[in-house]
Structures are given as C-alpha cells and as structure tokens.
C-alpha cells in the first residue's frame, strides 16, 4: 500500500479547511517514475463525451470588430472554430502520452459577453479512453487563434479559465 500524502484538494469541514489525504497515483508514470503511456487494451470501448471551456478577455472595441467582421484577418470566429476542431484532431501529436482516438464529433461554440468571449468545446468518441484532452486542446487553440487574429488591435487580451467542465462515459454502446 502506498503512503498517504496530502493532495492538492482541500475539503471544507465545519467551515474550516483541512487537507484531504489519499494515495497519489500518477497514471502516466511507471514504478520507477518514468513517463509511460497507459495501457488501455483491456478496457472496453464506451461512448464518451467531454466539455471544456476557455475565456478570452477583450476590449469592447475589439468585440465590436469581431461582431461586425471588421478585422483584416477575416471572420475571427469562423477561423477560430476551424482551428479548434483541427486542434482536437491533433491532440495525440501535441500531448505526448495521449492516445490516438477516433473522434465522432468536435463542436466549438461561442458566448459573447460584455468583457470577452467564452469558448465552449465538446468532443465525443466511442473509445477505450476519454476525450478530455481533445476538448481542452480545442478550447485552448480556439482561444489562441482569437488572440492571434486580434493582436494587432488589442494589446490587453488575456486568455483565462481554461478548464474541463464535464466528462461522461456510458457503457452499453453495443460494442
């Protein structure tokens, strides 16, 4: 049995913070601590979906240019959407220990706010492993593409809040 070590997760108990103790099991290292790809060969294929998001803070004038398609580089949201989809399909090439999986869907959606654009990405597959990294990669690259297309007019942009919103796996896919 592994020794218990403090985790990075904090629990609120009776309005005070305490450190949660649990075994530390890194899935991408072997017994000697070397990087290792997880063996998923014994896992059954399942329907899986992950949703991720990112936020890019933009000036109001920049948001107006995006809305009005007034930037010299073209339709920012259309280009960023395609970049996000392409990025999800290349995740295994960008993140060394990710498995190559067949994506059945990648969607990139936008919510314009007063202070910027929220990017919401969804990735789906039927596979032996999840699609979290594909959804996160899509969100990150979509945000970077918006940044690239707007950098000439907005020097204050910030990409924030890149996170996994949800992940779901369902057995009974018939495979």
TrEMBL record:
Pathway where this protein functions: Cofactor biosynthesis; molybdopterin biosynthesis
* PANTHER family on file: CYCLIC PYRANOPTERIN MONOPHOSPHATE SYNTHASE, MOLYBDOPTERIN COFACTOR SYNTHESIS PROTEIN A
Q: Which UniProt keywords apply?
A: Lyase, Molybdenum cofactor biosynthesis
Per the UniProt record, which EC number(s) apply here? 4.6.1.17
Q: Which gene encodes it?
A: moaC
Q: Which reaction does it catalyse?
A: (8S)-3',8-cyclo-7,8-dihydroguanosine 5'-triphosphate = cyclic pyranopterin phosphate + diphosphate
The keyword Transcription regulation appears for this protein: no
Cite the InterPro entries for this sequence: MoaC, MoaC_bact/euk, MoaC_sf, MoCo_biosynth_MoaA/MoaC, Mopterin_CF_biosynth-C_dom
NCBIfam families per record = moaC (TIGR00581), PRK09364.1 (NF006870)
Name the chain's protein. Answer: cyclic pyranopterin monophosphate synthase
Tell me the enzyme class: lyase
Entry annotated with the keyword Lyase: yes
Q: Its GO biological process terms?
A: Mo-molybdopterin cofactor biosynthetic process
What is the stated purpose of this protein?
Answer: Catalyzes the conversion of (8S)-3',8-cyclo-7,8-dihydroguanosine 5'-triphosphate to cyclic pyranopterin monophosphate (cPMP).
Q: Which GO terms describe its molecular function?
A: cyclic pyranopterin monophosphate synthase activity
- Residues in domain Molybdopterin cofactor biosynthesis C (MoaC)? 37-168
Read off the Pfam families from this record: MoaC
Source organism per entry reads: Brevifollis gellanilyticus
The record ties this protein, via CDD domains, to: MoaC_PE (cd01420)
